[in-house]
Amino acid sequence: GKHTVNLDNKIADVSVKPFTLEMGIKFELHVTVSGKKINVSEVPELSIPEDWVRDKLELNFYKSEQGGGGEVENVSYDKQSRTAVITFLRAG
């Protein structure tokens, strides 16, 4: 439908249109856990920028607190070797 929005004291008429989101990317990781760090190997080659891969890895391990994840301090990703090291703020 059509809507009227007030933006910084200016009125804008907008309309809502449906759109299709791209499907997410699923991949399998091989993980070695060592206290405060997780070594990730066989990170798949994805057609996205390297910083997006780092962000995806960080979100994956940050979200999985019940599975051994937690607040992430650093993500080091090496595209050549397809490996990453996730460093957490606290050992767990």
From TrEMBL:
Domain NID: 2-73
Pfam annotation, one family: NID
Annotated Gene Ontology cellular component terms: cytoplasm
Superkingdom: Eukaryota
InterPro entries: Nmi/IFP35_dom, Nucleotide-bd_a/b_plait_sf
Protein name in the entry: NMI protein
